[in-house]
Amino acid sequence: MNWERVERRLQRGFSGRPTRFGSTVLVERRRPFPLAEVIEEALSEDEREGYGGLEAWPGNVSELLKQNGIEERQLLGFYWDALGPMSWSAGLVLVGNGRKRYLAFWDEIESYRAVAVLEPWDDELAVSAATARLLARNGTGFGLGLFGSLPTETTNYAPELVACEVVRRAYFDLMQWWERERGSAWLDLAEEHFGRMVEPNHLQRSLDILESLPQLDEPDALDRWLDARDAESAAIPDTARDQLFDDWFNGAYDEPDRQIAAEREGH
Predict the structure, then answer these.
(1) Nearest to 236 by CA among 175, 181, 195
(2) Distance CA 223, CA 207 (A)
(3) Residue 50 confidence class, pLDDT cut points 50, 70, 90
(4) How many independent structural domains does the chain possess?
(5) What percentage of the chain has pLDDT greater than the value 90?
(6) 153 assigned to some structural domain
């Protein structure tokens, strides 16, 4: 892989107005930079034969970066239980060598897309600010749609760069934004959170959800059902939202180092 070629494209793609955090320069894009696509264009013939298309295979992008000596620093990992026997994962990473790194989001459909560049890359305030803006509006300010729902699990691999409270605040703001933009966000979270307590079996819980849907042979049944859910969710008081969110977040968020320390204490 010709990483110098990739970097030249990245530098041209991140030539917008910078934001300064002390000595750190942050440049964000209003549309994502297609990092996986540009990397694919820079592959050698042997790499192209071995890896094929990269846009739907984020694992191949990660492997290519590793093989070519390009550092990939994991920030956040996201995991979802999908409806039925399926799962979904995504991640937020810093890519590059030297002082300048690119903040990139990857998922299982569109692979790696870069949204910001930081120089130097290890400023907690700048990394946290970019991450918070990305998460709190579901990526809309960057031309992305990150999540359909809050992740079942969020793993913070770099709490020294993105503190727990930054993720917590961004997720809470995202819930409030979803409630205004599309409705029923808090009711959806309550049903998901308490549903796991009542029925731990994910497949059975998926069947229960399907059985709760309205009959579609009546023309207005679905609209009435959705309107009722929106109204019920909007009526959830702030104190109940705070308590629900705290209960959910405490079970859905983790830091590997904290988990290892807890396991050691248990032994």
Answers:
(1) 175
(2) 22
(3) confident
(4) 1
(5) 70
(6) yes
Phi-psi region of 179 (alpha: psi -120 to 50; beta: other; left: phi over 0): alpha
Dihedral angle sign, alpha carbons of residues 95, 31, 14, 64? positive
Indicate whether 157 belongs to any domain.
yes
Question: In the predicted model, what is the mean pLDDT of residues 229-233?
Answer: 91
| Nearest-angstrom CA–CA distance, 199 and 202 | 7
Q: Which domain holds residue 84?
A: 3-178
Which two structure tokens, joined as six digits, stand for 186?
Answer: 């808090």
Question: pTM of the entire structure?
Answer: 0.87
Distance, in Å, from the CA atom of 259 to the CA atom of 256, rounded to the nearest integer, reads: 5
d(CA 33, CA 13): 7
Q: Could you tell me the two tokens for 5?
A: 């070629």
* Distance between CA atoms of residues 181 and 169, nearest Å: 18
Distance CA 160, CA 133 (A): 18
Specify the residue for token string 């590059």.
96
Residue 264: what pLDDT? 38
In a domain, 134, yes or no: yes
Q: What is the pLDDT of residues 61-102, one digit of tens each?
A: 999 999 999 999 999 999 998 654 456 899 999 999 999 999
| Distance in angstroms (rounded) separating the CA atoms of residues 210 and 228 | 17
